[in-house]
Amino acid sequence: MARAQYAAVQSWATLKDYVVRVFEKADDDNVFVLASGLTFSVVAAAVPFLFILVSLISLTLEAAAEAAGVQPIEQLRNYLEVIVPVLEGGAETGAERNLPEEVIEGVVNSGRAIGLIGFVAFVWLSTRLFGSVRAILREIFDLRQSRGVIQGKIFDAQMVLVSSVLVILNIGITIVFNLVKARGFDFVGLSAEQMGFVERVSAWFTALAFIFLLFLLLYKYVPARRVPWRMALTAAAFTAVCWEFLKVGFAFYLTRVASFQSIYGGIATLVVVVVWFYYLSIVFVLGAEVAQVYEMRRVRRRQIEVLE
Description:
By secondary structure, this protein is mainly α. Helices cover 83% and strands 0% of the residues.
């Protein structure tokens, strides 16, 4: 009993010290300023990135999707509904989509025919996001290395294409699942209600796995110096889990508490998206802070062991 109490006291002291150090470092790094800058970059890069996705989807998925009786653009819409948590709140937010409908329609109507020059231009515009992420992680991880302007832009363009491919693969998995379902799941003996549950669980798991993988790649490879896997995994796990909790809490706030439509009118959806990206940027920055404090504590513990 005494050992259990001692272990509990030690665990509480360790957790308290960890949390205090994270908040102290977050304060030193001006986490809210970093999150504000990242939010601006996300908003500025959102439309060019959507153009890239629509263009690549039209080149890679549409033929197979037609044979499967699936609309990949609708899958992209559904994916956006997973990313931004405006869930069945149209009556109170004045929006049926997570992004302003006119923006989505404009991207879909013209994204298939942007051409090579337009595609390259949108890739270039989207690099701002990864440039901001690189600068933020460099500040938090206390890195001195820099890729330079030209090499940094080339690397950011590569990250835009890699993230686009990840999104398309995620949509492709959904299309394959729908194709298999269309061909029949009768042999497994599942009812329509059970199949609906399987679809929801698989969609949630696929989205969470994709989000975790995307954050892992960002934390691991975006900085100029390679971050240890343990740091990248810690940051990605923290951010992905907080993403899910934040999404549920934000959706509850939108549907049960807030009334953005009465305050902002026709731009309510845009305001909701910007606020959500700001909160998500804070979580992303805090994930890096948690990983950095974890690594600092680990190094300090090893130094103490060596000295002893």
